[in-house]
Amino acid sequence: MTVFENFSAADVRDLIADYPLAWVAAAGYGVEQASLLPLLGDYGAGGRLVRLIGHMSRRNALVDALHPRGKALVLFTGPQAYISPDHARDRSWAPTWNYAQVRVEVELEFTPGDTPAAVERLVEAMEHGRADPWTVAHIRDRYEAMLKAIIAFRADVIDIAARFKLGQDEPDPVLASVLEELGDPAMCNWMRRFNRDRTGE
Description:
The chain has one domain: Electron Transport, Fmn-binding Protein, Chain A (Pnp Oxidase, Chain A, Roll). The chain is built from eight helices and seven strands. The model has no long low-confidence stretch (mean pLDDT about 95). A seven-stranded antiparallel beta sheet has the order 2-1-5-6-7-4-3. With about 200 residues, it is an alpha+beta fold. A hairpin with a 7-residue loop joins β1 (about 20-25) and β2 (about 35-40). It is elongated, with a radius of gyration of 20 Å.
């Protein structure tokens, strides 16, 4: 295991919360059975991810590929940024790319009876913090018809792998320069998170 694979349950949780739109691909199928879907996590002992909750259009190719239950791979991509030698303030330093990703192997099961709850949970999570949060009540006249066109699912976690390549292997002066020069607040926050022992934050 490299330094980039050293992560916590909280790192996974926060990346999913910050970047909930993930690729979901049916195991053993072609690219047509892959789709971007917003997902929310359920967490168990120690804050470990145990399940993903979502919904999709009933016309999505994943429905036929996975119904009523099937294995899938879920890929969350977090912050990413090209790091130039200019960011490092060193033209003899080679450029690189910083990024964070979480790969989750799941057993996905469609749960049509949970569709209203899954939709409302996602809306609540996405609208959280807004001055006047939107709710499904705003489209009550159309909501029942919309629900018929979508289907909820739960995806129980089989395995998790992640890679957080965020400057942990860079010398202190390079890390400090990149944090000052990059101009990408989201990336810099995650870089600081994974280099707390060196940034003092």
